[in-house]
Amino acid sequence: MNQQLPIIALDFGTMEELQAFLELFPKGETLNLKVGMEMFYLNGPELVRELVAAGHQIFLDLKLHDIPNTVKRSMTILAQLGVAMVNVHAAGGTPMLQAAREGLLAGTPAGAQPPLLIAVTQLTSTTEALVAQEQLSRVNLADSVAHYAQVTAEAGLDGVVCSPLEAGDIKSALGREFLTVTPGIRLASNDVQADDQHRIATPARAAALGSDFIVVGRPITLAADPVAAYRQISAEWQAAKAQTQA
Ligand SMILES: O=c1ccn([C@@H]2O[C@H](COP(=O)(O)O)[C@@H](O)[C@H]2O)c(=O)[nH]1
User: What residues bind substrate, as annotated (predicted)?
Assistant: First the structure.
């Protein structure tokens, strides 16, 4: 998956909306696309195969969270779709994370690269209060994210989903190679719409904090001009990335 490009979250309610969105882009342009639950529940593996066949790089964001046997067998099936990245919830525990890895390796066709496997730490919609009151966590949100990242790394996965705000600490603790995939991206403007996200940052700040990939949905899909919004976000992300590498 090309780290220079944002991953566009394809969160649409119908196939017609998805089709109309994709047709806005020049034919043949390769995109990083995220197929989440909405689209997968609507059109399943067939849609994924079509997007892969069109040359796009796909993050299949199904956030598996079940017993190890179920996750392993499901990953074996998903590995055959030709996607670039899949994920699970780190809260599923080490045996489940390891089973996910085993399932992916078992299902990857001979000679192909297995998809990157990442684990969600704490959803970017989660707040400090929710972690304390509903998860009854003994530690704060940042420490919970850091701990889930550590567990994920020890289980042999490629990285985590976290907010950009936590990416820097995770890279410092677990090394440059351990990937941070960060949703919760919003453009700086006076009327910034956080929607249901709570831990947010701009593309530039995400790059400065060490994100490897940004995931962007509504700021692109609901923009008056989605392609212009995508180009603006890509340009901001790439410029800030280049600065961190200089
Ligand atoms: O912690 C998480 C994990 C996944 N997501 C997904 O990313 C996109 C974000 O969409 P926006 O419209 O840019 O808010 C969405 O598909 C989520 O399912 C996340 O936001 N946070």
Answer: 11, 34, 61-70, 124, 186, 197, 217-218
